[in-house]
């Protein structure tokens, strides 16, 4: 074993020891939170205090300095504990990556140190409109000092848990990304997300009524016609979904095993019996284990590709083709992982009769959560993009360029809005 591999293993062992107790605590309360629809403020606080929300922030800014494979491995474990949590923190993670891709050191210093100190970023990007455009406006303040933000966003995942909100707005000429305090005067966050899964992600409405914005809170301007730039963010955001889905597959396996081990009756067998000794139950659990293994392997492979692209960028070796290939790999992974996890979330009920449908167990949450995650970023369109790429060499992202050109974050979030809002 190489010295580098030994060091990586030691790092992963330290990270596991650090976060495993927190994941266990989160998992212990997941069913009760689901039953009561109790937002996960306390688990988010635990993760912030332990440094999970700053894992990818480089150590020079006070963060954890984790590699992308390490980050996604831990994110999968968090998804196993409660799949709402990775989704809640998805925009925070993406914001960190966008800062790491920025060439503006003062911007990185300003915002990454805040995240390292425990502050969390949410986002208000997508809107419930018939067209993918920004209706939120950014206009000069009448006093001549700063700006005023007005409008409404939906699918603003995680904003109820956030300290800062990354907002997509329009100043009459350009699209603009701005950061505003979540508790600023004029900001209203509403928990009106009505999806049947991922119920605790607070993916609802955020309103901005004459919210003051300083110049220091402006992140970047974009022209609507701006061409695709080299970025790994689309693949990164998709891999967060893959890791969360993989976590669900692991939770399905865990809960299926626990259910079968505790049972003392088998359908069609009189008297006491042990489902754990039933060959048919063996087959079900074997299939669940295999599906979880496959999803984890695929997600891990994409995470390693993301890390390779990240290192290539740092070393000046990354090309446009690097990012095109990364997007295609993530899209291909999406097709397989979604199907496998949804299969597992349905198959788990075969470990034991109608009792597996008890509300006290809430095994249905795994399918509901996986189905909602699978609906983000339409897989059927991505499958077509993959085919067109292999047949005609057309880069996948170009086919969504009109809907996605406004910012790295919006490119992914608009697809989510289109998918969920129909």
TrEMBL record:
Record's keyword annotation contains Transport: no
Listed InterPro entries: Acyl-CoA_DH_C, Acyl-CoA_Oxase/DH_mid-dom_sf, AcylCo_DH-like_C, AcylCoA_DH/ox_N, AcylCoA_DH/ox_N_sf, AcylCoA_DH/oxidase_NM_dom_sf
Key word ATP-binding present: no
Annotated ranges, domain Acyl-CoA dehydrogenase C-terminal: 241-377
UniProt keyword terms in alphabetical order: Oxidoreductase
Gene3D superfamilies, per database record: Acyl-CoA dehydrogenase/oxidase, N-terminal domain, Butyryl-CoA Dehydrogenase, subunit A, domain 2, Butyryl-CoA Dehydrogenase, subunit A, domain 3
Domain of life assignment: Bacteria
Acyl-CoA dehydrogenase/oxidase N-terminal domain sequence ranges: 26-119
Pfam families: Acyl-CoA_dh_2, Acyl-CoA_dh_N
UniProt name for this protein: Acyl-CoA dehydrogenase family protein
Organism the protein comes from: Paraburkholderia bengalensis
């Amino acid at each position: 074993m190489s010295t580098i591999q030994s060091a990586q293993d030691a790092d992963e062992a330290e990270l596991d020891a650090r976060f495993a107790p927190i994941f266990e605590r989160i998992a212990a309360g997941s069913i009760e939170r689901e039953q009561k629809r109790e937002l996960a403020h306390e688990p988010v606080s635990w993760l912030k205090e332990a440094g999970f929300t700053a894992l990818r922030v480089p150590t020079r800014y006070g963060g954890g300095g984790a590699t992308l494979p390490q980050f996604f491995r831990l994110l999968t474990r968090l998804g196993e504990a409660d799949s709402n949590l990775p989704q809640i923190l998805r925009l925070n993670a993406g914001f960190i990556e966008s800062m790491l891709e920025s060439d503006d050191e003062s911007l990185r210093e300003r915002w990454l140190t805040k995240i390292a100190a425990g502050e969390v970023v949410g986002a208000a990007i997508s809107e419930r409109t018939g067209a993918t455009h920004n209706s939120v406006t950014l206009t000069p303040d009448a006093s001549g000092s700063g700006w005023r933000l007005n409008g409404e966003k939906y699918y603003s995942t995680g904003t109820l848990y956030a300290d800062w909100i990354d907002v997509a707005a329009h100043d009459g000429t350009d699209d603009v990304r701005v950061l505003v305090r979540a508790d600023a005067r004029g900001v209203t966050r509403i928990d009106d997300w009505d999806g049947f899964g991922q119920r605790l992600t607070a993916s609802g409405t955020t309103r901005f009524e004459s919210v003051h914005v300083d110049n220091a809170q402006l992140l970047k301007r974009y022209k609507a016609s701006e061409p695709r730039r080299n970025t790994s963010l689309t693949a990164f955001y998709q891999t967060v979904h893959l890791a969360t889905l993989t976590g669900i597959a692991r939770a399905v396996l865990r809960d299926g095993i626990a259910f079968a081990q505790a049972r003392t009756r088998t359908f069609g067998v009189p008297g006491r019996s042990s489902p754990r000794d039933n060959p048919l139950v063996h087959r079900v659990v074997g299939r669940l284990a295999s599906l979880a293994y496959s999803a984890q392997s695929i997600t891990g492979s994409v995470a390693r590709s993301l890390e390779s692209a990240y290192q290539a960028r740092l070393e000046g070796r990354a090309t446009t083709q690097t990012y095109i290939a990364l997007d295609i790999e993530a899209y291909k992974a999406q097709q397989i992982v979604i199907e496998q996890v949804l299969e597992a979330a349905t198959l788990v009920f075969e470990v034991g009769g109608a009792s597996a449908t008890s509300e006290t167990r809430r095994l249905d949450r795994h399918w509901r959560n996986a189905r909602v995650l699978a609906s983000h970023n339409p897989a059927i369109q991505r499958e077509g993009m993959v085919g067109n790429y292999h047949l005609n060499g057309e880069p996948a992202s170009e086919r969504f360029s009109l809907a996605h050109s406004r910012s790295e974050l919006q490119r992914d979030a608009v697809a989510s809005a289109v998918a969920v809002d129909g």
